[in-house]
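README: folding subset

This subset contains proteins for which both the sequence and a predicted structure token string are available. Records are stored as plain text. Below is the entry for DfrA (127 residues), shown exactly as it appears on disk.
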Amino acid sequence: MKKIIQTDKAPAPVGPYNQAIIHSGTLYISGQIALDPATGELVTGDIEAETRRVMENLRAILAEADLTFEDVIKCSIFVSDMNNYGRINEVYATYFDEATAPARELVEVANLPKFVNIEISAIAAFD
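--- output ---
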């Protein structure tokens, strides 16, 4: 049986999906973009600010499920420009302990929702 996770501290879904689902001891978080949940506005300006907003959205969803970034086992990162790889990594690295960081891929794509520069989804596990 699946359990829906929903928090107003992260952007509301804009389609037929949920922020996250728990199933069989695993939390599956939908892709998050740099939408500020308080204002509904996109965070723009630089890739660091966008990445930070995405990570904070992920943090809010993890917290709603009583988890933290320590519980994340996999992230999928989609970017519009691979030239931002290093700048994204600088921000992303502040959310994880390098020794226990999750598995991950980072791929460049042609477009993302709302034409943002980054989207991240995550999978976390309950002990």
